[in-house]
Amino acid sequence: MMHRPNWDDYRFVLAVARSGSVSGAARELGVNHATVLRRVAAIEKRLGVELFEKSVRGYDIAPEKLRLIEAAREVEAAVGAVERLAQVGEAPLAGVIRVTSTDTFCQAVLPRLLVRLSEHAQDLSFELLSSNGHLDLARLHADVTVRPTYKLPDDLFGDMATQMAFGFYAASDAVPEDHWLGLTGGIGRSHAGQKLREELERRRVHFMAASDSFLTLRALAEEGMGRVMLPVFLGNASKSLQRITPVLDVPPVPVFVASHVDLADAPRLRQARSRIAMALEAEEDLLMGLERTKPVSAFTEA
Hints:
Order of helices and strands: HHHEEHEHHEEEEEHHEHEHEEHH
Strand order of the largest sheet: 4-3-5-12-6
Strand content: 15-25%
Number of helices: 12
Number of strands: 12
CATH class of the largest domain: Alpha Beta
Helix content: 40-55%
CATH architecture of the largest domain: 3-Layer(aba) Sandwich
Shape: elongated
Largest sheet: 5 strands, mixed
């Protein structure tokens, strides 16, 4: 009969999954490199599976083993919950939640939300990963993604938490009407980005510069380099920019909170998505460019 590995065995597997390398896991656990290799190899042998794909990049989770790794993470959270239950009689959301979003959201929206969430869950911590591209959540590069998009890709599952509006800005009226800043990369391929490019090309404007980051576009616009389309919460926060007449009507963009479809029902991630979505919903006035109201009580224990 196969020997059942104890919880200590899984600690080594999860440390490698988190860090993506044996050396990183060794530092986290305070053991040597060889110990990590031995413990991971031993549990793979007992389970009869290979949990990781080894490459020059490090240790990636084999896609078909994603559920197994997440199950181990649920066990990790449960072990911590048992200890907290013994101490305080309740088990709040805890552990590390890796959240990925655009650089704009990571800098201008999510920090204050995550701070407030952490205040109501002392054993909860976050890794905030900034990427305007599509991180591979299938390999647990992140647990939860916060994405402004009209439609989630097929490999993600989640709900719309709020929506955000766009506005048009310039440093002053002196910026020529045909001088614009263009959107490239991921934001350029978005629905709003494509519509803007089509309209500006129709008007035969002169593109002074372009960027794949709204933060960079705002900085360029603040220097007077051209007119720009920005999320209103970013443009309105600038002391150097003023609203200008829109060149087209851009509908509000839904903001989704999602996880990989294979992990959509994982209790820990479902609870994390719910908390983050509630926090974002409380920020809708800000994201829509309306008068900001006091956030509702979105951070109480569910």
